[in-house]
Amino acid sequence: MPTAPVLSQIRLGGRTVFLLNFADETAGALETHACDVLSRDELTLWRGFPLARKRREWLAGRMAAKAALQADRLERGLEPLPFRTLPVLPDDGRSGPVQSPLDGCLTISHSGTMAAAAHSDTPIGIDIERLRAFTPAVIQQFVSPTESRLLGPCPDDDPRLTLLWSAKEAVLKARRARNLTKIRQIEWRGWNCSGAMEMREHGLPVSGVFAGFWRGHAVAVASARRLPEARAA
Questions:
Q1: Is 90 within 8 Å of 97 (Cβ atoms)?
Q2: Which end of the chain, N or C, is surrounded by fewer C-beta atoms within 10 Å?
Q3: What is the pLDDT of residue 2?
Q4: Residues 122-131: tens digit of each pLDDT
Q5: Which CATH superfamily hosts domain 127-223?
Q6: pTM of the prediction?
Q7: 110 among the known binding-site residues?
Q8: Is 54 annotated as a binding residue?
Q9: What's the pLDDT at 23?
């Protein structure tokens, strides 16, 4: 009998991050809940993925996202809703940034057999990365000379490299940016007294970036400017 997937929560910078492990022993149990978790439109997208791995990570991401949405409702004193009534659909196509069915911003990330999600009333980005080694060529693509000096001697499997990548990608996700070629323009300058990562872009501060390690992964969340207020017609 497949093991039921376990949903975990961590706090980063005052944000609650929901995480779901969809390893092989839990994947079967995860898929048995698809019809209870996914809306009709989501089921259509999910069934259209030809690879089982892609279906699993997509479903796990939706489950983590809907747990974040449900928690947001409960914090506002609202009644919980069935997950299938909270559709989490991509802005365009079948993947990429997603739309929140509630007021606010929703963000999802996957790595290996782990999915992560967070919801906020302001733009937010999340990234989770399994700790791994980077080739020298890849390190040059996202680590600046200034960062190299701050890091000091740094083997290619130094977990700080994964943490740095994750933090930068979270910043881009908060902006709903798809172009990772700009990742090197975001520079890490250390940590401040509140535990946030001090980041700069073209010399200007990038605030609201928090990152940490969790069960062999680097996890990061980043904020962006507030959502524009609706204008009267």
A1: yes
A2: C
A3: 52
A4: 999 999 999 9
A5: 4'-phosphopantetheinyl transferase domain (3.90.470.20)
A6: 0.92
A7: yes
A8: no
A9: 85
Residues 6 or more apart in contact with residue 46 via CB below 8 angstroms: 34, 38, 55, 58, 59
pLDDT value at 171 more than 90: yes
Residue 39 in marked binding region: no
Query: Residue 61: which residues within 8 A CB-CB, separation 6 or more?
Result: 20, 108, 109, 110, 115, 117
Q: Is the pLDDT of residue 17 over 70?
A: yes
Domain coordinates in residue numbering, the chain: 7-119, 127-223
CATH domain 7-119 topology = Ribosomal Protein L22; Chain A (3.90.470)
Topology agreement, domain 7-119 and domain 127-223: yes
Tokens of 70: 């449900």
Q: Dump pLDDT digits (tens) for 89-112.
A: 998 766 778 999 999 999 999 999
128 is in an annotated binding site: yes
Q: How far apart are CA 166 and CA 161, in angstroms?
A: 9
